[in-house]
Amino acid sequence: MKNKNFLYESQKLAFWYWTLALILFGFQLVFGLIIAYQYIQPEFLHKILNFSIGRLLHLNAMILWLLFGFIGGIYWFLPMETEREIVGLFWAKVAFGLIAVAVGIVVAVFLLVQIGKADWVTLWFITEGREYIEAPRWADIGIVAVFSIIFFNVFATIWKAKKLKGILWVLVIDLLAIIGFYIAGMFFTPNISVDQFWWWWVVHLWVEATWEVLVGVLVAWILMSVLGTPRKIVEGWLYLEVFLVFGTGILGLGHHYFWIGAPEYWLGIGGFFSALEPLPLVAMVVHAVYDAGVHRLKTVNKPAFFWIVFQSFGNFVGAGVWGFMHTLPQINLYSHGTQITAAHGHLAFFGAYVATNIAMIYTALQKVRLNEGQILDGGLWKWAFVSLIISIFGITAPLTVAGFAQTFIERAVGGSSWQAYINGQLHPWVKESMVWRFGFGIMFFISYLLLVIDLLKIGKKPAIA
Amino acid sequence: MNAETILKMLIAGFSFTLSAGLYAFFYALGRLSNSFLLELFSFVFAFLMILSGFFLVVCPVFTLFWKLLLVFSIFAYLIIPKGMLWIVKKLHQKEK
Question: What residue ranges are annotated as transmembrane (chain B) (predicted)?
Answer without folding.
Answer: 6-29, 36-58, 64-88
